[in-house]
Structure formats: structure tokens, C-alpha cells
Amino acid sequence: KDNLLELVQVTGNYLADGLDILQRVYPNMLSNNRGKGTFRAVDMPDTETQLKVISMLRQEGVQIGGCGASTVRIRPSLTLDPSHVTIFLEKFEKVLKTL
User: Fold this and answer.
1) Model pLDDT, residue 58
2) CA angle 63, 39, 81 (to 5 degrees)
3) Lesser CB count within 10 Å: N end or C end of the chain?
4) pLDDT band at 56, cuts 50/70/90?
5) Which of 78, 53, 95 is nearest to 43 (CA)?
6) pLDDT tens digit string along 10-26?
7) Residues 63, 66, 70, CA angle at the centre, nearest 5°?
């Protein structure tokens, strides 16, 4: 009915590509972009950076979590679409620029 599988595939590819770009622009901050569909994770250099990024993204209105010592994980709802990903990537880059 809502084509959720197709939406997750398209949106997930867009998110993965955007995170790959950020990883290339900020190689000292992001590494190991991985996941399936819109469920993604990236590694930060250390726990301090991980916690700072999560806190700053939350201040920007992004609900995001950590995993392990240095990973930031992205677990959005199935209704996430590319326009939401664009907003997220802009906010993520804004945070990365300040570090």
C-alpha cells in the first residue's frame, strides 16, 4: 500500500551515499559507514567525539543514538524519505564542521 520496501531501499541508498560523501570530506571524524536500508552506522574517532556528536545532533532536533565505544547509529522510522535524509545530512555536516 505505502511501498515502504521501495521507499526504504531508495532512501537507504541516498543516506548511504550521503554518509560516504561526509566520510570523504571528514576522514578524521567518520569511518566505516555501514548498514542495510536506512539502518546505518558510522564510527567516530573516540567516545568523547561520539558523545559530543550525539548531543549536538539532538540539540539540532535529530533523534540519534550511540552504540559501543565510538559508533553513531541511525535507526529512523520506515517512513523516512530522501527529503528527511537531506535535512539530516545538512545537520550532521553542520555538527562535524564545528568539531
Assistant:
1) 98
2) 70
3) N
4) very high
5) 53
6) 999 999 999 999 999 99
7) 140
Residue 40, CB-side half-sphere exposure with 13 Å CA sphere: 27
Axis crossing angle, helix 47-59 with helix 82-98, rounded to the nearest 10: 120
Q: Residue 10 and residue 74: Cα distance in Å, rounded?
A: 16
* SS3 assignment, position 96: helix
Using pLDDT thresholds of 50, 70 and 90, give the confidence band for residue 1.
Answer: low
Quote the cell numbers at residue 55: 548531543
Q: Is the pTM of this model over 0.70?
A: yes
Q: Which amino acid is located at 90 in the chain?
A: E
69 backbone φψ class: left, alpha, beta (φ>0; ψ -120 to 50):
alpha
C-alpha to C-alpha distance for 96 and 29, rounded to whole angstroms? 8
Give the position of cell 558523545: 51
